[in-house]
Design brief:
globular, mainly alpha
Length: 96
């Protein structure tokens, strides 16, 4: 599986996990375009949701690239850094 195809698959799943109910990457693109350059800041998920998604994504990455768990986790970190939803557990934080 090519890296861009896997990234698209991960994005579709990520959107579905926060209730956006997309069935294709084209729908992801439409939503992102409608929500501006910082579309990834428009939704949040809990730490638990993110950890469950990470577990699923790391498994997908390992299977797709036949790599170690450590390598797959590093690849996931890059994916999450570029496109991941913000984590919001409903905690009050101090603004500076």
């Amino acid at each position: 599986m090519r890296q861009d195809k896997l990234a698209k698959e991960l994005l579709v799943e990520m959107f579905n996990r926060v209730g956006l109910e997309v069935s294709s990457y084209a729908e992801v693109e439409e939503w992102a375009e409608a929500n501006g350059d910082e579309w990834f800041r428009k939704r949040t998920w809990t730490d638990t949701q993110e950890q469950e998604f990470k577990k699923w994504a790391v498994d997908k990455i390992r299977k797709a690239f036949k790599c170690t768990k450590k390598t797959a986790e590093a690849e996931y970190s890059w994916f999450h850094l570029m496109w991941g939803w913000r984590v919001d557990n409903g905690e009050i934080t101090c603004e500076r």
